[in-house]
Structures are given as structure tokens and as C-alpha cells.
Amino acid sequence: MSGWRCVFLQKSTMRIKGKLGMKIVMVTPFPAIQGIISGGVAGVSYYLAEALTKIDGISIEVIYPDAPVEHEKTAEFNKVRVHYLPRVRGIGSAARMIFTGPRAVKQKLEQLNFDIVHVQGVACWTNFLKCPYVLTIHGIPERDVLFRGRFTMARSLGIKLVEGWARRKAKNVIVISPYVVQVLAGELKGRVTEIENPVADSFFEIENSCISGRILYGGQIIPRKNIEGLIRAFSIVHEFRSDAVLRLAGSGAESDYGRRCKKLVCKLGLEKKVSFLGNLTIVQMQKELSQASCLALCSHQETAPVIIEEAMAAGVPVVASNICGIPYMVKNGVTGKVVDPNNYSNMAEGILSVLSSENFTNMAQAARCEAENRFRASKVARRTCELYRNILKS
Hints:
This protein has 13 helices and 14 strands. The protein is of the alpha/beta class.
């Protein structure tokens, strides 16, 4: 029996007898600066790690492969130690995904003391793992890439090949939405557990002081998020609601696509009505949510956007696309409206419906109640911890 397996067997036996806590290593994108989140997976991991540390006997370390750093560094986030592993320069993204990233994860794990590994987002990071692990599938990357860059079909096929192999060999998988099972059912050979994304408890404490007509978007400024479509829909909303404003929170405003969106705003004469806020801290986003009359997210491709959960937790109704995993999150006419992201008039109708005073209060209350039952981080952390223990027992 190998050294690793022997140690895990001994620890598992002691844990069942209640003599040990549990040490978890999470392999995931993670914020580089505390309180500033860029990307949904980083936000989910941040909230989950924070909630897990509040459970007695649980300790967390994080490995962030291909991190935006020049040299390896370690930082402390409350009770969580984070190891940032730099991206290997001079090689293609495919080689990083298949070889250098997974190898760096394996080498770092050999230096750490842990019981189980939780990989978030990139299935290939599990390539060299021989220890107990669980994989959370956050998205369908072979579909996401269709909205980014050139040679999209070829890149999509390549990603499906390498990620699909890693997904098939995973013995334990967490899916964040039924949509994931719907799309990847043929690839998921291991035990599948549905656990939705967590939202920090602080979002449930936001006091709603919404400003009439204030529409918030949260996410990156990229083509997949259909920001141009949202701006065009807002121009229709503005014809009926002169008090309406659109606030776009997220990174990417200075990219080529971001500049294209700004040009469209000018072309439509909406410079005083549309604001590009940039990437916000958690506190700043919570302030934006407290003042928002609705959240608008009209993407072309999504799985289970955490910004929808954050808005619902804050009691903000949601207007979002009727595609992918979103209809599993937003109850049409109850917690918000689902709309056709390719139909600007339909998008505008959904926003105007939510902004009406008779709909807002009921939707806001229903959204927060739904989020409380499904997304609160402390509840998600307990379910996740229970899964860890079951994996180690088996």
C-alpha cells in the first residue's frame, strides 16, 4: 500500500471514531485581494471556504494554479491560507490545462497535510491526483469558449476532449445546477451530488433602500454576457421610464468589447444614464444591491451565476435569460422574470414589469425567502462537509 493511501486509511478510521477534525485543500481560482472578487468561481470558493472554517474541526488551505502572479506566494485570508502558483510562461493554454497546471497542483499537495481535496471549476486539475477528491463542475467551458476569441469551434472541441476525460474519471462530482447533469449526463460516471453555490451570510443582512428605476448588472464585460444586448434593451426601457439608470459592475470595460459597449452607449445618447463601475469590492457590490430596483443578467450562456443568488439574498428581483441553468434559479413572475436574450423588446418588457411598484415588493420578498432556503453559505457548507465525510468513510 502506498504511503499516501496508508495515511488516509489511518486518518479515516480515526475520524470515524471522532478523534480528528478534517483538513481540506481546495484547488480553485481565488481572490488576489481580500474582499475583491473577479469571476464567479473565485467568489463561490471564497464564500465556501469562509463558511467551512466556522465549522468545528475544519481547516482549509487553498491552491490557486495558474494565478496572476510572477512568483509563488502565500497569503492569509482570515483562517484560510492561500497558495498562489504562477502561470508557466511560454506555453499554450492547452499545455497549461493538461500538464503544467495539474503537475503544479500535485507537487504542492505533496508539501501539505490534508484529508481530502476539493477541485473547483477546472476538471483537468485532477489529472495527477491519487488521493480522495471531489470535483465541482461550475460551467460548461466548451460552450463558454464559443463566445470568446477566434477558432472557437476548434478550441471548444479540444476543451471538451481534455475536460471530458477528467470529468469521466472523477469518482465524486458536485454539480451546482440540474443543467450540468442535463448537458454532461454521458460523462458523469461517478457519484453525483447537487449542491448549489453559496452566498455569504452578509448578503442576507443588506437593508433594501432601493432607488426607483435603478438597474444593476454584475459580471465581466464580455460578449458571452451580452452587454450590448442589455444596453439596447435599456434604451427601450428608458423610453418608458425616464428615471431609469443602468449600472454595470465588473471588470473588462477597457477591453475591446468594453470600448464597443461604451461606443454603443454614446450612439444611443445614454451617456448620462449608463455607468461602467469597474470591479467592485464585496462591500461596494452590497451597497449597489441595496439601492437596486432589479438585477439584469441577459447572458447567452450561463450555468448558475452567483450574482443572481447574491441579488436574491439581498431581496432584489432578477431579470435574466431563459437559457441554461437560469430557469432553475429564477421563478418567472415570482422572484423575477426570465426573458429571451436575443429579443431586446422582451428583455425591456421584463425589466419594466419588475420595476413596476406593484410587482417589486412581492418579488423582493419572494427572492430573499427562496435564497434563504437554498443559498445561505452556512447551509451549503454543512452539506459540503457532510459529503466530504461520506467520501472519506467510503
